[in-house]
# Entry
Amino acid sequence: MKQRGPGGDRPLSRRPGTGEGAGRRSEPPARPKIDKASSANDQSLDAIIAADKIAALKLAPVSRETEIRLDRYIALLREWQAKTNLVAPSTLPNLWTRHIADSLQLVDLAPTAKRWADLGSGGGFPGVVLACAMAASPDAKVHLVERIAKKAAFLREAIRVTTSPGVVHLAEIGDNVDRITGPVDCVTARALAPLHQLIGFAEPLMRQGAKALFPKGQDVEAELTEAAKYWNIEPRLHQSRTGDGWIVELDAAERRS
# Structure
């Protein structure tokens, strides 16, 4: 809101008995109006997110350096969320448990993996989170494949502000093999597609030695049944620490003839 400065359109007061131009006082600048409801809501959300962070880091502890990177990432995500839909608005109060901890738990399922590929990275889960967690590891690299330009721009900025070892590829998900160079230890995708389609996207990387980790919801058994129509697989299931979902681990996949 524009402020009214000295010499504005309010009448100036004059002390009696003074000459022209003496004793004039300008009105103080008008204070900008504050949307108290909006401010209170922001403060309330800040408090909720802060409490959720404490809960999330109990589920998935990280180093102080990684925590700082994740703080920068969350601040950037909240800034961009106002203009680009990166996460469902309903999940903002639970950013840390619903998205950060949910992504971090993948590291424990592939503790030796340093080179990751995240297909359909979207708002950066799990790709940017993995990059933050891998930042202190020599030779670490996380490939983030995203087909939407605005989201790819956000991912590049997130990698920059967190100083994390990520490489963003603006490409269709099925083009990942041509875009990703060098070995990949683990490939993942979150909230992208049904399991049988994810396996199709990841299979070329798995054929080269990558393990696959796919977070899934409560309907994982139905997705496994459907995937078995198209693929010979031997899945291992890990229960999620952050909810009722599961993580599907695959070492190989062979297309049924």
Remarks:
- The chain has eight helices and nine strands.
- The radius of gyration is 26 Å.
- Strands lie at 115-119, 141-146, 166-170, 186-188, 211-216, 231-232, 236-239, 246-250, 254-255.
- Residues 1-26, 34-38 have pLDDT under 50 and may be disordered.
